[in-house]
Write a sequence for this structure.
């Protein structure tokens, strides 16, 4: 370089940096690429209605109760009901259960529904454009109401027929109000109807209806459920002392003032038997529950059995009733002791009588609560043949030329529960929608495309291509949760009436919880597989390659700089990210 | 749900740290807590290179790179100059690795803190001379492989307890911190910034390259070091008041060691011995902190 | 110690005390002269580690800082290495800085001497020439400062107490003009601890010559940048060339500096000072206090009719090649007296002078003498011996001739 000797200012070239390193696109180093990949929470897959539970709890934890409530409604129109009476299979698979205790999902569901009701919130649910098809729904029980609700949201016109004076089915007549208050149910049904269908009560349809339905309707949904107890086929069954458990519950639900005194035998082990027993307590009787297998074999929900025993129901396990006879003003029941012979394939005991072991029981009244039957034969689906499609919770028949007929609810479900009824209603709606658009053959494929996890639960949100369909169907395991980010904290204790208070009336036993308790409980939820904006990915990124989105609360990965170290994926407490090979 | 950490960053992307570099995470957190009225003295260490070559710099604050052993001394000079100019706002920070703190830079550090120079000295510890290729330092833990303690010659000296040495100088504030506990770390940095005199932070910064661990586990390993009591989180004020910030459940040291390639040569007996050493150190710390020993 | 004539013969005018308003004439140690100059320069940060015979400099400066006559921060660091490191930090933050050291201390600073010049920081250091150990020796020897001649620091060798004070002030001027650090070098004890009458300038005059420091770059949170980032092969050489250019600029601006100094103080020294060299056949070349002794000899030689001359070398880095050529080019023989030695080569001033003269078509023979190491006296007799040997020899030996060695028996 030529020197300028007259230069007054000395050349001063030192290592003084004034540019940033941003021109160095370190993303080229990558051989693994992280990305945001929401997955399926086990609770939502275990829920027969496919509720997006992880997201519900996330919204609740943030205080967004209306949004949480709407998230439930998208998949299940009965949160106030299910929050009270569902047997919550979700809680059994909750990953938090392996850490300390499962989330009290049903308490939170009830909380959201009750809060919505208290503030008279109206949900904003999407209703698709009107379609030409018209569908008749027979029976306004949970399955029928669910079917009508989902079909209406899909744009169809529904007409619902209900034989009783009020809708609700088993919810109205079969579940006592100490579990499900009537007012709550009526509110819920109003909301369900508000999407745009009406119910004609007091209309009992005949078999002809089905035959002539094709003239007015493109499809029929039959959700008539169970309304009577079958015969036990034992001597003395026809004596006046023996009554139908379901009718008893219905009478109470109608507000009839029943009085029962003395020892009352209830035969059976299902939810109906339990409900009858506990109702007997409340009307003055002393219930004795007679069940032919062991307590653990009883089909009733465990919580219900426990509550019944707490209230003072006397449970006689491993007894069958062989005869009922009159004895003066009382009645004698002959009980046969049985024992477990072996365990069946389903794990339930198979029993055989113990020779010479019988007892007698003096009772004032006997209630039958064994098994359930449809009121009329034609409510049941016919035997399956080539023209019928057996879905997880319902059966769809399409006889040539006639309307499509879908049988759902208790009459088709393996598990007789409210949430399975809802599932069958949803299934029917989706199946019919596919049927009308593409035909019978397309139904299985389309259904498999909107399952939650591995199925069989379906998601309406996924079906209508909502954001939920972006999620992977991989069900998050506990091992995939980064438990380092959580501290042990106990599950909320469900507030209840005192034991002494409970049996004094039919008042609801479970009490409300406050908003801060609900939030505290919801915060315990891992939100498995979902992003709850905790920002860990951005916090820990050594390369500042996770950047905030300008418009939303979200963030994105800047692949110009991401070196693919994978820290974001590991530090995501809830496995909402994935690491894949860079191609 | 969201960790409570200051949100504004003071460094750019595009630096040349290895994928998963714990030192980069440490710098990120410390800068968030210090803010931009900060001048940084950077003696020779990984960050001398990570910061990028001329004419780039990845840091948004003024930086002076300095010779290896001069971290404490150069900072003293910068501070003196700022004082002479009447600048009371700017915070002077030395950012050194374990080499420049425990070993070659020890004298200058000791001299500076003995004079109670008004600066913050941050040592980010990746437990070896990583920048020159994973050679052993006095902060390398007992049992570790390094390129100068290879094979059967694995390091059989225990890690120097630098915080205790600094505590013996009776400086106003000394503390340990970890990249896996950002809330604790940033709180300590903020606290340090508000104190006058010499303040020392010893930050555990895992090194995937040098420790032979998968890069995605860098933070997790750092967390385990705390959970196993190998690297306890504590603060000491004025050379005597100890506060232990976190009482872990005390996970087994073995799990921590098994996950790292630099320890894979250790036998069960070695690990048992190490567990005993960890326990011994932890008990000593508890005694100093006046914590009642459990059964 | 030899008597030193306090008013040596000078080419340049030396005004009397009364001509300078406000100036004080005091009898001062060389060390204290340094301290006074540092005070007048209003240095802001001082950082030093004590080592004999530099201690009086830092002690006087400590006094000034303590009594408020110098409002500077004094860092009592724990080693010389840290002393220079601290100044590198302080200078980078944009203030005027100073340190002092000697011998072992300077050697310890070596790494950072390179750093200071590479970072282009105008640090000023007083370096008291003292011998290097082992064999502890606290007396004067130039090997310590000369061993650092490659570090990019300017080097100025002083002969008298006044020169020490003046050169220290001048050092700040030069350093800040070109952004390179400067060593002001004085002999141990002969200069550092010897009392001489010295003019101490008034503050206003010092301010006229040396205005407040304006850093050309500094650490600044308002304009953040990074100093000393990795400089790869594609750019490092240019940074180094810039240092060389700065050194070249010193040669250009030295005269300008001296003119300004003369304007204010009436004193001037020159990068080299030729004494009666125009017609000399043999010129003795010296530096430091040996020069004073040699002036004495020169008078004696000239009185005897010898055509002798004396060249005092003050500026060693940058090396004043042109001035050397001009002063020595016409002589027959040059005898360089080195109070230092580069083992395996020889006297260092001699080497550099030989290099400066090597391409002259008709240059002088350059004889190299090593004398006075470790504080051994260099007397007029010794210098006379050097002169006579030089005059006598026809063939100039390549190796340096060591003067005044005794017979000793070596341990096995």
């Amino acid at each position: 370089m030529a020197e300028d000797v007259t230069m007054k200012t000395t050349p001063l070239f030192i290592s003084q940096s004034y540019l940033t390193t941003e021109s160095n696109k370190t993303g080229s180093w990558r051989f693994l690429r992280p990305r945001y990949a929401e997955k399926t929470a086990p609770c939502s897959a275990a829920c027969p209605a496919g509720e997006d539970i992880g997201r519900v709890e996330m919204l609740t934890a943030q205080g967004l109760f209306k949004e949480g409530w709407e998230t439930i409604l998208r998949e299940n129109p009965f949160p106030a009901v299910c929050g009270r009476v569902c047997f919550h299979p979700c809680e059994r698979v909750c990953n938090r259960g392996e850490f300390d205790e499962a989330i009290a999902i049903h308490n939170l569901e009830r909380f959201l529904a009750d809060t919505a009701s208290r503030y008279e919130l109206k949900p904003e649910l999407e209703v698709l454009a009107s379609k030409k098809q018209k569908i008749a729904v027979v029976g306004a029980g949970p399955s029928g109401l669910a079917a009508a609700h989902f079909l209406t949201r899909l744009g169809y016109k529904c007409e619902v027929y209900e034989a009783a004076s009020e809708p609700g089915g088993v919810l109205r007549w079969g579940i006592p109000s100490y579990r499900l208050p009537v007012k709550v149910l009526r509110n819920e049904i109003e909301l369900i109807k508000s999407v745009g269908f009406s119910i004609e009560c007091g209309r009992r349809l005949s078999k002809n209806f089905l035959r002539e339905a094709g003239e007015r309707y493109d499809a029929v949904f039959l959700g008539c459920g169970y309304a009577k107890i079958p015969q036990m086929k034992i001597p003395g069954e026809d004596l006046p002392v023996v009554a139908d458990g379901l009718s008893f519950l219905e009478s109470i639900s109608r507000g009839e003032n029943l009085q029962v005194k003395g020892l009352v035998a209830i035969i059976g082990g299902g939810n109906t038997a339990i409900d009858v027993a506990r109702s007997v307590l409340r009307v003055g009787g002393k219930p004795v529950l007679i069940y032919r297998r062991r307590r653990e074999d009883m089909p009733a929900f465990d919580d219900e059995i426990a509550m019944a025993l707490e209230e003072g129901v006397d449970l006689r396990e491993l007894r069958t009733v062989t005869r009922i006879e009159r004895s003066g003003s009382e009645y004698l029941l002959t009980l046969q002791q049985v024992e477990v012979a072996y365990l069946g394939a389903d794990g339930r005991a198979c029993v055989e009588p113990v020779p010479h072991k019988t007892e007698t029981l003096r009772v004032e009244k006997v209630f039958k609560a064994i098994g359930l039957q449809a009121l009329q034969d034609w409510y049941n689906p016919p035997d399956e043949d080539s023209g019928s499609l057996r879905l997880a919770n319902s059966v769809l028949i399409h006889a040539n030329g006639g309307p499509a007929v879908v049988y759902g609810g208790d009459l088709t479900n393996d598990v007789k529960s409210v949430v399975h009824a809802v599932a069958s209603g949803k299934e029917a709606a989706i199946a019919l929608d596919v049927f009308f658009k593409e035909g019978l053959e397309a139904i299985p494929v389309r259904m498999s495309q909107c399952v939650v996890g591995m199925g069989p639960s379906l998601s309406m949100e996924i079906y209508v291509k909502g954001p939920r369909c972006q999620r992977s169907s991989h069900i998050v395991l506990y091992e995939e949760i980064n438990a380092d980010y959580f501290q042990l904290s106990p599950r909320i204790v469900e507030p209840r009436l005192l034991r002494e208070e409970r049996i004094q009336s039919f008042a609801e036993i479970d009490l409300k919880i406050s908003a801060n308790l609900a939030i505290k409980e919801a915060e315990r939820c891992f939100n498995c597989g979902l992003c709850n904006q905790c920002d860990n990915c951005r916090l820990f990124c050594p390369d500042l390659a996770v950047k905030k989105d300008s418009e939303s609360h979200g963030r994105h990965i800047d692949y110009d700089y991401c070196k693919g170290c994978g820290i974001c994926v590991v530090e995501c407490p809830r496995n909402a990210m994935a690491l894949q090979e860079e191609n | 749900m969201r960790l409570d950490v200051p949100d504004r960053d003071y460094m750019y992307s595009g630096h040349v740290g290895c994928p998963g570099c714990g030192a980069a995470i440490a710098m990120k957190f410390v800068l968030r807590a210090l803010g931009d009225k900060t001048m940084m003295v950077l003696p020779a260490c990984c960050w001398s290179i990570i910061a990028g070559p001329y004419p780039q710099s990845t840091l948004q604050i003024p930086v002076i790179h300095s010779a290896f052993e001069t971290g404490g001394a150069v900072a003293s000079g910068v501070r003196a100059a700022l004082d002479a100019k009447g600048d009371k706002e700017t915070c002077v920070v030395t950012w050194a690795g374990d080499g420049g703190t425990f070993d070659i830079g020890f004298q200058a550090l000791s001299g500076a803190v003995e004079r109670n120079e008004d600066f913050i000295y941050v040592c980010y510890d990746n437990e070896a001379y990583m920048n020159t290729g994973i050679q052993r330092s006095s902060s390398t833990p007992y049992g570790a492989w390094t390129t100068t303690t290879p094979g059967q010659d694995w390091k059989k000296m225990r890690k120097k307890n630098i915080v205790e040495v600094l505590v013996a100088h009776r400086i106003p504030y000394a503390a340990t911190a970890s990249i896996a506990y950002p809330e604790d770390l940033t709180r300590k940095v903020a606290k340090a910034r508000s104190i006058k005199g010499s303040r020392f932070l010893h930050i555990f910064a895992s090194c995937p390259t040098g420790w032979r661990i998968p890069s995605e586990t860098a933070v997790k390993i750092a967390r385990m070091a705390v959970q196993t009591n190998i690297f306890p989180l504590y603060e000491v004020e004025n050379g005597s008041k100890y506060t232990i910030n976190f009482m872990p459940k005390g996970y087994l040291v073995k799990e921590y060691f098994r996950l790292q390639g630099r320890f894979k040569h250790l036998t069960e007996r070695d690990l048992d011995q190490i567990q005993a050493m960890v326990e011994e150190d932890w008990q000593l710390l508890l005694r100093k902190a006046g914590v009642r020993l459990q059964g | 110690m030899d008597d030193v004539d306090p008013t040596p013969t000078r080419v340049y005018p030396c005004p009397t005390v009364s001509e300078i308003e406000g100036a004080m004439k005091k009898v001062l140690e060389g060390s204290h002269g340094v301290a006074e100059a540092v005070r007048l320069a209003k240095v802001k940060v001082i950082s030093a580690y004590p080592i004999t015979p530099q201690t009086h400099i830092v002690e006087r400066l400590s006094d000034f800082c303590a009594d408020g006559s110098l409002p500077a921060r004094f860092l009592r660091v724990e080693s010389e290495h840290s002393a220079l490191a601290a100044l590198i930090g302080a200078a980078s933050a944009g203030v005027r800085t100073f340190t002092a050291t000697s011998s072992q201390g300077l050697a310890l600073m070596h790494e950072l001497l390179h750093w200071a010049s590479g970072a282009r920081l105008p640090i000023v250091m007083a370096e008291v020439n003292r011998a290097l150990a082992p064999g502890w020796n606290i007396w004067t020897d130039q090997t310590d400062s000369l061993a650092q001649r490659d570090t990019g620091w300017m080097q100025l060798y002083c002969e008298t107490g006044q020169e020490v004070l003046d050169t220290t002030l001048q050092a700040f001027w030069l350093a800040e003009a070109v952004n390179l650090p400067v060593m002001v070098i004085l002999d141990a004890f002969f200069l550092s601890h010897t009392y001489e009458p010295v003019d101490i300038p008034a503050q206003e005059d010092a301010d006229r010559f040396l205005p407040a420091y304006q850093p050309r770059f500094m650490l600044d949170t308002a304009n953040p940048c990074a100093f000393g980032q990795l400089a790869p092969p594609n750019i490092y050489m240019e940074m180094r060339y810039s240092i060389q250019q700065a050194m070249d600029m010193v040669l250009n601006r030295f005269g300008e500096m001296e003119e300004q100094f003369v304007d204010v103080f009436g004193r001037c020294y020159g990068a080299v000072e030729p004494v009666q060299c125009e017609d000399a056949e043999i010129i003795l070349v010296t530096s430091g206090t040996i020069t004073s002794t040699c002036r004495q000899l020169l008078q004696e030689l000239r009185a005897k009719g010898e055509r002798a001359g004396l060249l005092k070398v003050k500026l060693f880095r940058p090396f004043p090649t042109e001035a050397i050529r001009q002063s020595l080019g016409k002589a027959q023989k040059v005898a360089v007296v080195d109070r230092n030695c580069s083992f395996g080569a020889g006297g260092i001033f001699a080497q550099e002078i030989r290099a400066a003269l090597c391409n002259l078509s008709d240059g002088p023979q350059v004889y190299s003498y090593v004398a006075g190491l470790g504080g051994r006296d260099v007397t007029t007799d010794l210098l006379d011996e050097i002169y006579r040997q030089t005059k006598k020899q026809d063939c100039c030996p390549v190796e340096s001739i060591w003067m005044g060695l005794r017979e000793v028996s070596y341990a096995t």
